[in-house]
Design goal:
The protein contains 7 helices and 14 strands. It has 2 domains: 228 residues, Zn peptidases (Aminopeptidase, 3-Layer(aba) Sandwich), CATH 3.40.630.10; 69 residues, Beta Barrel (OB fold (Dihydrolipoamide Acetyltransferase, E2P)). The longest helix is centred in the C-terminal third of the chain and has 17 residues. α5 packs across α6. It is 21% helix and 24% strand. β2, α1 and β3 form a beta-alpha-beta unit. The structure holds zinc ion (ZN). InterPro entries: AspA/AstE_fam (IPR050178), AstE_AspA_cat (IPR055438). It comes from Thalassobaculum litoreum DSM 18839.
Length: 321
């Protein structure tokens, strides 16, 4: 255990060099066309370079020859420059090269004059995001939280992620403090568009379980789109199916205000607090408490510093109760 990382690296980053030259004209992007009518769907891995589970899931689909039976499927290693620098001795270092690639999806940044590794790659991939009808963006988290599907909360997203039916928790809303995530890039966040993006947080970045969850989310996504059969799903799934999904609405995102912030406990995420007033954290001597009963803590970030989001709070969606 190093001073900077308390989480063991149980996963091995797959060698993706063979995937560099694809058939799309964009490095590390491949499209498989069934030749039959159907969805134009995409699966993203490693928009954050140190989140290995997405690379493992896409590598699995490629090696196991899992191909769409209708429509076309595009798979992408989104930030290969960051991913290729991954070093298990310093696993936290390679989230990005120049900047967080999941904050740049605003017209100002994409059309602006800044030139970072992540912006250049975002601009290269943009024609895909302007075209695909469905997108699954695979991520992982800093703590041993159970997996979560994150969406805006638009009706089209709620319907689609319920169809995917995995993992067990769907959290709607943003709660973040700066920039826009890819799933917030138009047209995905436009209620009038029928294109849909969702983001899955599969578990701790380097926990073996997060790779299993990433593979199964990708399979259930393809099955929900009727692009692989139930038999293919059953033959390849690594974890048990989910009986029923829970939907929660993110109501708050908390950004740290002082240099003296700490969590009340070593929360891992998805803890539920029955009563309002439960202490989540202390910031500059002030207790930060749950604002309502039956509050769920989502994605506590124990590495966040002043100005950054430390956690989100969510409440169970009416429809799910
Ligand atoms: Zn991520």
């Amino acid at each position: 255990m190093s001073a900077t990382n308390a989480y063991p690296v149980e996963l091995e980053a797959p060698d993706i060099s063979a995937y560099r030259t694809g058939n799309t004209g964009i490095d590390y992007v491949h499209t498989f066309d069934s030749g039959k009518p159907g969805p134009d769907a995409m699966i993203n891995a490693v928009i954050h370079g140190n989140e290995l589970c997405g690379a493992i899931a896409v590598d699995y689909l490629m090696k196991q020859d899992i191909r769409p039976t209708r429509g076309k499927l595009t798979v992408a290693f989104v930030n290969p420059e960051a991913y290729l620098r991954f070093d298990p001795a310093h696993p936290t270092k390679t989230r990005f090269v120049d900047e967080d690639m999941n904050r740049v999806w605003t017209p100002e940044r994409l059309n602006g004059s800044d030139s970072t590794v992540e912006l250049r790659r975002a601009r290269e991939l943009l024609p895909l995001y302007d075209r695909v009808e469905r997108l699954l963006d695979i991520h992982s988290m800093g703590t041993y939280s159970d997996p979560i599907m994150l969406i805006h909360g638009l009706e089209k997203e709620r319907r689609f992620t319920r169809q995917i039916g995995y993992p067990a928790m769907i959290a709607c809303g943003s709660g973040h403090v700066e920039g826009l995530r890819l799933i917030e890039y138009a047209p995905f966040n436009d209620p009038a568009s029928d294109r849909i993006a969702c983001l899955v947080e599969c578990g701790q970045h380097w926990a073996k379980s997060s790779a299993d969850v990433a593979i199964d989310t990708a399979l259930q996504y393809l099955h929900a789109l009727d692009m692989i059969s139930a038999e293919t799903l059953a033959a390849h799934r690594h974890t048990a199916p989910v009986e029923a999904v829970t939907v929660a609405d993110v109501t708050h995102g908390y950004a740290i205000r002082t240099d003296d912030f700490f969590f009340a406990e070593n929360f891992k995420g998805l803890e539920r607090f029955n009563k309002a007033g439960a202490v989540i954290a202390v910031d500059g001597g002030e207790e930060i408490v749950t604002p309502y009963d039956d509050c769920i803590l989502v994605m506590p970030n124990h590495r966040a510093v002043k100005g950054q989001r430390a956690f989100r709070l969510a409440r169970l969606s009416e429809a799910a109760v």
